[in-house]
Specification:
Blueprint lengths: L4 H7 L2 E3 L16 E3 L9 H9 L10 H10 L4
Parallel strand pairs: 1-2
Length: about 80
């Protein structure tokens, strides 16, 4: 459902951080998609967007550079 997903997968490596109980897809993924082996945290993009909309900090949920970019561009406010 992503806009321009073909271009993203063609030109960039996509790292997937799985959520608890999500499981892996039952279809073959392109070589450009890799699952990250890391502790599982139940944090979604929707959760982060809602925190921003409600005026809460997203510190420690995203890299500092991402937090600054979102703030500078006034995304989700």
């Amino acid at each position: 459902k992503w806009k321009n997903h073909e271009a993203i997968l063609k030109y960039y490596k996509l790292l997937v951080y799985p959520r608890p109980n999500a499981g892996k897809p039952n279809f073959e993924l392109p070589e450009s998609v890799q699952f990250v082996e890391a502790p599982l945290l139940d944090i979604s993009a929707t959760f982060i967007r809602n925190k921003i909309k409600n005026g809460h900090s997203i510190k420690y949920l995203v890299p500092t550079e991402v937090e600054e970019f979102i703030d500078r561009k006034k995304f989700y406010q």
